[in-house]
Amino acid sequence: MNKTATEWMIEPLRRYAQFTGRARRAEFWWFFLFGLLVSVVATIVDHLLGTARSSGTGLVGALVSLGLIIPQVAVAVRRLHDIDRTGWWFALPPALAIPVGVLAYLAIATGGGTAVAVGIVAITVFAVAVLLVVWQCTRGTEGANRFGPDPFADTMVY
Question: What is the average per-residue pLDDT within 50-66?
Fold first, then answer.
């Protein structure tokens, strides 16, 4: 099952909202690249059509983002499954927003200033982002795990 880069880019679209099973690193990272390239093209189209806002995103970019968000989350969850982690880890950044926001508010309200609040937010977001990127780069568990069979099982041995 040696897929081309294009096939890896399209695979998450075929499994659009499938949050079960496992995804190989190639599937995750090639789809990440695909999403990045499509977003860049959408931004260029927005500028050419004059629909871009000051933030850089326009109508085409918003539609692309809406269309890709479900397969992006689904492939990220399946990728976490491949390393035998629950997909709920992907919900960690939004879940951290509330306590981080409260801490930032308290820092500002108690005179800690915005620098402390920004520092708290930046360190927390950075730490979580690094953790998730490391996990997305980690080789999947060998053999079947609680989320399904090894996606490498039929193609190659570790």
Answer: 87
